[in-house]
Amino acid sequence: MTHRYRWDELPHRVRDVVQTHAGMISSAVPADEGQSSHVALTLHRDQRPPVFLKGVKGVSREMRWLRNEIEVGGIAPGVAPAVLFHADVDDWLVVGFGHVDGRPADLRPGSADLPAVASALDRIGAVTATGLPALRDRWRGRWWHKLAEERPDVASGWDLNQVARWEQRTLELLDGGHLLHTDLHADQFVLSDNGDTHVIDWGWPASGPCWVDPAFMVIRLIEAGHPIADAQSWARAHTRWASASEEAITAFAVYVAGLWSYKAATEALARIARDYAAWRLQ
Asked: Mean pLDDT, the chain, as a whole number?
């Protein structure tokens, strides 16, 4: 995004519609969240709970992501932030969410936050989401051969025929109708002082098997300092990861390593994903 709008920069019609739903706004504080939005503000209202406002201007992939957040708010109450209102105003889409107070999760070994993370993963996996796009339909890329052609330094040392076969197997193993976040990391968990845990930023939801988000979390735990075997043991003991076959987890790891190495992650995270895939292949 090239510009984040302040409250007083929004068109009058947009502000009027927001205040029709939210009431009079006493102050609007820019938020760190919502990096894919043109507006992300915490709206304070006298003697009423605040509202978190997201808005996107113009038809775009960012607007699609925000509409996805509206949809998930309806099917995963108590996990995703509540959607209080949403409106299309001229070329704007604005959404008011229930404001969630809290802090990001600590994923490091021994963290007291890990049980709350496991509970949130379990609650996500319990939601039926057959109306959402299937992850299998999204994951049709062939990343390892692209890496070999465009980034041979990354693909060097890998048996391309082997990883390509595993990559293909992934599509056969992604049947399921459970809600998936698909982009979980520590900042997506919001832990409140009262013990509540919410999961935010649902721009990339999908339907699929309930073990997928826990499998993503294994990679994030490795990133946070857990040895691979310990990260897997935690997921096996505390999440729906245990419902997956060993074959499915290996195929997943190989696919994600190729995807993240090609286009979807930082170099450091892509390297961790490749290390995990190599460990699974051994």
From this structure: 95
